[in-house]
Specification:
alpha/beta, Rossmann fold, three-stranded mixed sheet, about 40% helix
Amino acid sequence: MITFNQPVAVTGATGYVAGELIKQLLALGAHVHACVRANCPPQKREAISNLIKNDTLEGKQAALTFFETDLLEKNSFDTAFKGCGIVFHTASPFIIDAKDPQKDLITPAVEGTHNVLNSVNCAQSVKRVVLTSSVAAMYGDNSDITSDGELDEHCWNTTSTLHHNPYALSKTLAEQAAWQIHDAQTQWQLITINPSLVIGEPLSARVSSDSFNLIKRMLDGTMRFGCPKWGVGAVSVHDVALAHILAAHNSKANGRYLISAENTNFYTLACLLKPMFNHYPLPKNSAPKWLIWLLGSLFDKSLTRKMVSNNIDVVWQANTQKSQTELGLHYQPIQPVLEKMAHFIIKNDLL
């Protein structure tokens, strides 16, 4: 039985993964310090608040306290972390249009990591930090994986640049900064959770997630004439949140954990929806790589010919043995999770 004797803090509390994490923490009877932005939409905060009213919490000592914080403000998290034994750092800067990758992505990601972990250093009660990183910190393009055979916790992204996949570069530099800060102190232990494409139902319809945008485009007809076989890993949001909790609770947990349930690609994910959602304009075929290579950048500037060459029709392969043996994580199959996600999108008129 997992128990928490001290409060725990969750940064970016209204985020996709954080919402599921808080849900599971409250179900375990934890007192959660939920860190939110001052301008957080009321609907998102309400979605988290409603968790404390859940019948499954009856008889448990769960509690929820909100703290207004700013990822890019020094000492902003000092009060929220006070008295906490564990900090779950899920927050990351949300940039809609990164016109200047250094200014809009890299600097905020790295500075945010420094600000959060400096506040951890000020909270003597904190003994463990579980940081939400990404597989993007482990590789840049699928072609990087094929050269090594498969992705695992030893891999680091060495190919992304400011001009090629800057988002992945920001995730890499942010995690590397976290390890540098960790190695300079002895108060707390750092564990990183590196999930692949996260799918599943969120707490709120006001969700911002790459996976949601992808599945919406499959259902609304945007990809009706073809979906690329862009290799990815996929994992349920439930399993990602659970991995955070297992990493926090297991005294022997250490280092990085690659969290992914299945090796797949975008077109295969679309095909998994066909049995239940065939009346929607799902992709009819896989989109030819040569066509996307030739015309993709006209529709999406991020689809450079280098990006297409290195990722479409290139197999994504990962080894998740460490998460299974050390954390005891048993992954949910992707198809039913994907179907529930599609139902949520349709039910909430998000198409």
